[in-house]
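Supplementary Note 3. Input sequence used for the single-chain structure prediction.
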Amino acid sequence: MVRRDSRAVGNAIEQFACRYLQDRGLKPVARNYRCRIGEIDLVMRDDDCLVFIEVRYRSANAFSSAALTVDRRKQNKLLRTAEMFLASRPALAGRRARFDVVGVDAGPDGHQAVEWIRDAFSY
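The predicted structure, written as discrete structure tokens, is reproduced below.
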């Protein structure tokens, strides 16, 4: 039961992040792309740039911000997953690409603070 609840929260936060980014001009391309290597939460376009986005959430009692939880290991996994995404969609393979992180932190008052880190790491 806990797994279903955490999955529902994750889906809601990803939807929230997608709307947040759309309000700032990004266009959705794919959501929850999965392959044998891993998953990419959101793939969007920012003008001519393809953006691979990791969405992270932390509750009000977390010790660090959500955006700071994407370590080098996770970055490498996202990079390899993005390569698989591009291999499966040759029409997008020529675009410039970047990796963003959207951290959503729940405040003690129930409001959500969003931290959008554009070009969060290099490849």
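The domain at 2-117 is CATH 3.40.1350.10 (Trna Endonuclease; Chain: A, domain 1). The longest strand covers residues 96-106.
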